[in-house]
Amino acid sequence: MCGVFMGEETVLRPVRGMKIVALVASAGLAFAAAACAKPTEETPGTGTSAAAAKYSACMVTDTGGIDDHSFNASSWAGLQAAKAANPAIDPTYTASTSMADYDPNLANSVTKGCKYIQAVGGLMGDATKKAATANPTTQFSIVDADNLGLTNVYPIQFQTQQAAYLAGYLAAGYSKSGKVGTYGGMKIPPVTIFMDGFADGVAAYNKAKSKNVQVLGWDKAKQDGLFTDDFGSQDKGKQKSDTLAAQGADVIFPVAGGAGLGSAANAGSKFVVIWVDADGFDTTKYGSVMLTTVVKNSTDGVKEAVTKAAGTPGTLLTGGFMGTLANNGVSLAPYHDFDSKIDPALKAEVEALKQDIISGKIVVESPAQPK
């Protein structure tokens, strides 16, 4: 979920210790498949002779671009981590500025000889299926979707509802107003799965404590709630969180990529934020309002996939990556500045719930969870 970069120098700046660096230079290449699409940004590959010795791993972002402080950024970090593990891996990315860019960006990745092509986000499912069907010997992978019924698509998926359940319980216990809020970027499974888990966690707290903390912005039973219909507009994110805060929410959970930065920027003393995907304390400048983050470990999922593919070039990957609390594919980030502000008993309860989910004693389900 979602920022787009221009220019020729460093695209991502280190924030609080997390360093994701990509160099963008003019590639001087034109592709016929992209003739009808607006220009997109692309990192360069290596020269012809160097490329022959390299394993080219190419990523196509969703509309948020590489610096969304969320799953595009963490997926790109996975490619960088794979390169650190295996210097033969040559990672590049192409940023999409609209959904219309998906088809040409994926096609261009094939044209320029990418051996591994990483799509990011369930919204890219149709475009990825089209490109992978047309190029059955090329290894594709996609975050937040299944294998699309194709043997050359490696799925990277997450049981995000598990970690979101912990966040909901924490939010309910931390709230002073008895109201917590959430909103999404779009009404799609990779978003609503967070909101379902969050609502279930609040319900679990209410049952355990005989409380009635309200969830504003999402009704799990009706599968309906508050959405920006955008993963990049901070103004829209601000508007949604202002609405929730006006109704009394003092903990807000934006599941909207870069749009959620609009909430973080305007939280002040009105509410605290629970971030998503990548630890917001490290990846944004708003750590002072970040209660915690529901982490979706795209970094490790992508790193694992690329490293496996580079280790057996020419052989298609089988299986897939499924992130859970048990394998740290999803998690609740540290509380950082809020650690001393959270009741130790509440922290202990959240940890106990985590272990109960891992053991199977508690099963957290969502209609949106991957099967």
Distance between the termini: 22 Å
Q: Would you list the SSEs in sequence order as H and E? A: EHEHEHEHEEHEHEEEHEHEHEHEEH
Strand order, sheet with most strands: 1-3-2-4-5-6-14
Mean pLDDT: 88
CATH topology description of the largest domain: Rossmann fold
Name of the level-1 CATH class of the largest domain? Alpha Beta
The secondary structure category is alpha/beta
Q: Provide the helix percentage.
A: 25-40%
State the total count of DSSP E strands.
Answer: 15
Name of the CATH architecture of the largest domain: 3-Layer(aba) Sandwich
Tally of DSSP helical segments: 11
Strand content: 15-25%
The radius of gyration over CA amounts to 20 Å
> What would CATH call the homologous superfamily of the largest domain?
Response regulator
Number of domains: 2
Unreliable residue runs: 1-42, 44-52
Morphology call = globular
Largest sheet: 7 strands, mixed
Describe the structure.
The chain is of the alpha/beta class. It has two domains: 32-158 and 299-323, Response regulator (Rossmann fold), CATH 3.40.50.2300; 160-296 and 335-359, Response regulator (Rossmann fold), CATH 3.40.50.2300. Helices cover 35% and strands 18% of the residues. The strands form three sheets. It has a seven-stranded mixed β-sheet with strand order 1-3-2-4-5-6-14, sandwiched between helices. α3 (102-111) runs parallel beside α4 and α5 packs antiparallel against α11 (344-359).
